[in-house]
Write a structure and sequence with these properties.
The complex is a heterodimer of chains A (112) and B (113). Helix content of chain A is 0%, strand content 54%. Chain A is mainly beta. The mean pLDDT of chain A is 94. Chain B is 0% helix and 58% strand. Chain B is built from no helices and eleven strands. In chain B, strand 7 and strand 8 form a beta hairpin. Chain B is globular, with a radius of gyration of 13 Å. The chains are: A mainly beta (112), B mainly beta (113). At the A-B interface, strand 4, strand 5, strand 9 and strand 10 of A face strand 4, strand 5, strand 9 and strand 10 of B.
C-alpha cells in the first residue's frame, strides 16, 4: 500500500518557466511533509518542508503548497534552472513517529 | 558538524553470497538510523529503522537484516543474496523522534549477478 504517491514519473520544463511537482498521500496521520532532490549515484538532499499547520512554505525559488483536505502537496520551482534537473522525492511523517515514507519520485528535466 | 559515511560504495556479488553494508554517523548522539533502497521504478523504499542500540524495526519482509551494535553504527546484512536485492542502498540519520529531515549517506550500489 503506497502511502505517498507521485504519479508523474517524469516532467520536462523549459528553462525559466515554472516547474510543478505533485504528491498525494493517503495516511491522515501524516502531518509533516518534505521534498528531497537527488542526483544520480548520490544520496538525496533535503530541499524544503512544510508542517500541516501551514498551507504554504517558501524558500527562494522553491515553494511548497499543502492542501490537507485533498491530501495533496505540490512543489513549485520558479524560475526553473538547468541545475534543477534531478529526481524529486516527496516524503511524509507523523508527529511522534520515527518513519519517514517516500514516494517513487519524479524525474525533472529542464530544457534549454 | 555531523557526517554520515557508508561503505562500500560499489559491490558486485554472486547470487547466494553474503552481504554486509556498514554505515557510521559522526558528530551527533542517539540518532535515528535508517536503511532505504532505491530500486528501478520503486522510489525510496524504507527497509529498516532504529531508534536506539539493538532496536531494529523492519518494514519489508525479505532476506535482509539490520543491526545496530553501537549508537552511531548501522549495518545491513544478508546471508544469501537474491537477484532482486540489486539496487542502490542508502543509509540515513535523523535527530531522534522527529518530523524533521533525514541526512543521507553517499549510497552503496549493489549488483547481484
Amino acid at each position: 500500500d503506497q502511502q505517498v504517491k507521485q504519479n508523474s514519473p517524469s516532467l520536462s520544463v523549459q528553462e525559466g518557466r515554472i516547474s510543478i511537482l505533485n504528491c498525494d498521500y493517503t495516511n491522515s496521520m501524516f502531518d509533516y511533509f518534505l521534498w528531497y532532490k537527488k542526483y544520480p549515484a548520490e544520496g538525496p538532499t533535503f530541499l524544503i518542508s512544510i508542517s500541516s499547520i501551514k498551507d504554504k512554505n517558501e524558500d527562494g525559488r522553491f515553494t511548497v503548497f499543502l492542501n490537507k483536505s485533498a491530501k495533496h502537496l505540490s512543489l513549485h520551482i520558479v524560475p526553473s534552472q538547468p541545475g534543477d534537473s534531478a529526481v524529486y522525492f516527496c516524503a511524509a511523517s507523523a508527529t511522534g513517529g520515527d518513519k519517514i515514507i517516500f514516494g517513487k519520485g519524479t524525474r525533472l528535466h529542464i530544457l534549454p | 558538524s555531523q557526517t554520515i559515511h557508508q561503505w562500500p560504495a560499489t559491490l558486485v556479488q554472486p547470487v547466494g553470497s553474503p552481504l554486509s553494508l556498514e554505515c557510521t554517523v559522526e558528530g551527533t548522539s542517539n540518532p535515528n538510523l535508517y536503511w532505504y533502497r532505491q530500486a528501478a521504478g520503486r522510489g525510496l523504499q524504507l527497509l529498516f529503522y532504529s531508534v536506539g542500540i539493538g532496536q531494529i524495526s523492519s518494514e519489508v519482509p525479505q532476506n535482509l537484516s539490520a543491526s545496530r551494535p553501537q549508537d552511531r553504527q548501522f549495518i545491513l546484512s544478508s546471508k544469501k543474496l537474491l537477484l532482486s536485492d540489486s539496487g542502490f542502498y542508502l543509509c540515513a540519520w535523523s535527530r531522534g523522534r522527529n518530523t524533521g529531515e533525514l541526512f543521507f549517506g553517499e549510497g552503496s550500489r549493489l549488483t547481484v549477478l
